[in-house]
Design goal:
The chain has one domain (2-103). It has 6 helices and no strands. Helix 2 (15-26) crosses helix 3 (36-64), helix 3 (36-64) packs antiparallel against helix 4 (66-80) and helix 4 (66-80) packs across helix 5 (82-104). The N and C termini lie far apart (117 Å). By secondary structure, it is mainly alpha-helical. It is elongated and about 100 Å long. The model has no long low-confidence stretch (mean pLDDT 77).
Length: 135
């Protein structure tokens, strides 16, 4: 009996066999072994498991460490909506391009005479005037 138990657990020892067993026995999906439908079903099941894992990580991180919750939430969003990850990566690439082009740019700075702000001049003028009661 121990050999049969070992054999049974042996078929659940790889990610692919685990996914196949879940599809058939847990989800009740019966697709032909090795077919394109089975492949699509396995990929869908794996994606769903990953989303559920990231959702759990985001919840636990949010309650245990609120400062890191945003990072966990972003990971979940990017897994559920891959286009968000692509948009973020494009924005990072664009920012890097701008930084690189600005790094090569040479600026000429001219020394100028600093002027007091207009409000400062008004206050200084008032202070120079005679007091109101001394006409």
């Amino acid at each position: 009996m121990a050999q049969q138990e070992g054999h049974f657990f042996g078929i659940l020892s790889t990610p692919l066999s685990w996914a196949r067993a879940n599809l058939r026995f847990v989800c009740g999906i019966d697709v032909a072994y090795g077919s394109a439908q089975e492949g699509a079903a396995i990929l869908t099941w794996q994606k769903n498991r990953r989303v559920e894992l990231l959702r759990t990580i985001a919840l636990v991180t949010g309650s245990a460490n609120p400062e890191r919750a945003q990072k966990a939430l972003n990971m979940l969003i990017e897994e559920m909506f891959p286009e968000q990850k692509l948009k973020r990566e494009e924005a990072i690439d664009k920012a890097l391009e701008i930084m690189e082009s600005e790094q090569q740019r040479v600026y000429n700075v001219k020394k100028t005479q600093a002027q007091k702000p207009a409000i400062g001049r008004k206050i200084a003028d008032r202070l120079r005037r005679k007091p109101r009661g001394s006409h």
